Amino acid sequence: MWQKIKPYKDSIVLLTALLLGGVLGVGLPELALKLKPLGQIFLNLLFMIIVPLVAISVTSSIARMTDLKKLGALLVSIMAVSIVMAIIPAVGIIGLALFFDPAQGVTLDLNQTISDTAGTMDFVGLLTTNDFSGLLSKSNILALIIMSVIAGIAIGQSGEDGRKVSALLDSFNTVIMKIVSIIMVAAPVGLGAYFASTMASQDPQLVITFARAVGLFMVACFIYLTVGSTFYAWLGGGTQGVKQFWRFALEPAVTALGTTSSLATLPVTLRTALKMGIKPEIADISLPLLVNLNKGGASIITALKIVFIYSLLRLDFTVDVFMVTILISVLSAFIIGGVPGGAFLGEIFIVTTLGLPMETIPILVVIGAITDAPSTVINVVHDLNACQIIERLNRKRL
Question: What are the TM regions of this chain, as residue ranges (predicted)?
């Protein structure tokens, strides 16, 4: 029994802590408000590590990828397919969430100014800073990611010197991940305390909105995994591609559900790709990259989180916000999802980029923890679809 639930251990512990925090906030609001400094300390620790975490993790991962530049068109097609397969589910869930408002009239009242979340977005300010020191602020995470990608490409193209720098970055990355793991020991206490203080001053009906949001996500997942997967399989191999996909997709899907890890499922995914008739030279190169790059599950849940929070805060979801949401969702799938051990990085990325209150972080974490397993299933299953499409795009070269 323990072996079956072991992959979910962290999520279960975190959700239990958040549940206890929510109960404490509703039942003993005065005590819950006094616990807020504990949560603030934990979040501040995460904020202090996020800049080096993003800079080193993204730069090192891109630097390693550019070693494959000799593959040329194949690598370009892998990236292009991954980006498109992140945009499609993000747009779909945004439309669904805007039509079926998961907040249903419940308002999160934080009584504070929210920057850059209404009206016109400053895209120049989001994408760049006018000084290097600006990259050292958590408020400029998007600009930091862009510069880290550029730096990673430069390192990958710098020959022997670049390889030395890349090796050093890998060592730094190991240390950063260890720091993150130490901080995350305090996650249940820190987030539980912060969630308790948030619930102490909010409408108890807020809890019900989580069920609506998760229910909406499950409906979207079912549609995307059935209709979306069939469409992708048809793009990759026509009617025969659809038959082959549905004949073999169950094993990696079940494995992903049990492990909640795309990486742990990779051996099964590779074996399944070969059973489907995908050429070994495509599967062996594409799937290890797609594990980090093609994360439609991360994209869909990121977009839902943003729409959900905007609905709770009663903010206008403008065209500018829509564009930034798509960008954040793609980056969450394309880059953030590939950062190993970067727990809560997605939530912090959302909050800092959109200028949302810190009190929204535990709410985003609740949704993320509950939907982690089905998101992983989407990631893994659609890696096979992506492999089919990539093989078709590169058929002449093969």
Answer: 41-62, 74-100, 135-155, 175-196, 216-236, 248-270, 296-313, 320-342, 348-370
Q: Angle at Cα 218 formed by Cα 255 and Cα 278, nearest 5°? A: 40
The dihedral over CA atoms of 180, 182, 188, 189, expressed in degrees to the nearest 10, equals -120
- Structural domain includes residue 179: yes
pTM score, whole prediction: 0.78
What digits encode the pLDDT tens for the residues 325-334? 998 888 877 7
Can you tell me whether residue 83 is helix, strand or coil? helix
Between CA 374 and CA 218 the distance in angstroms is 8
Which residue has 């980006």 as its token pair?
83
Please list the ranges in the chain whose pLDDT falls under 70: 1-11, 65-72, 105-123, 201-207, 258-259, 335-345, 396-398
Distance (Å, whole) CA 325 – CA 109: 22
CATH number (domain holding residue 287): 1.10.3860
According to the model, what pLDDT value does residue 339 have?
47
Q: Tell me if 166 is assigned to some domain.
A: yes
Crossing angle for the helix pair 372-393 and 250-259, to the nearest 10 degrees: 140
Q: Please state at what angle helix 345-354 crosses helix 319-334, rounded to 10 degrees.
A: 150
Q: Residue 244: which domain range?
A: 2-393
Domain membership flag for residue 225: yes
Distance CA 202, CA 108 (A): 7
pLDDT of residue 204: 65
pLDDT score for 3: 58
For 328, the token pair is 């954040």
Q: What is the pLDDT of residue 168?
A: 92
Cα radius of gyration rounded to whole Å, the chain: 21
- Which pLDDT does position 69 carry in this prediction? 56
Cα 191 to its chain centre, rounded Å, is 19
Domain count, the chain: 1
Alpha-carbon distance of 263 to 285, in angstroms, equals 14
CA 238 – CA 247 distance, rounded (Å): 14
Res 389: pLDDT: 92
The confidence score (pLDDT) of residue 234 equals: 94
- Angle, vertex CA 62, rays to CA 59 and CA 66, nearest 5: 135
**80 domain residue, yes or no:** yes
The confidence score (pLDDT) of residue 338 equals 47
